[in-house]
Fold this protein.
Amino acid sequence: MSDLTLTPESPGLHVAKPSAYAPATGSYVCGGCDAAATAHGDTAVQGLVDEYTERHGPAHRQTGGY
């Protein structure tokens, strides 16, 4: 299995929630601007996903930033 660590060369969004009772964790690295962030807890991870979606990965693809 290859290394799945997010980097500027291999950007993306990763979210994990091992069970319904465990808090979610998440991280992203943007390939368009090299921004990175992490979050712990369901509410914080939802905010992280929203931020990535609105300002990073998909936003850069729409404007040709990649």
User: Anything to note?
Assistant: The chain has a mean pLDDT of 87. The CA atoms of residues 25 and 44 lie 8 Å apart.
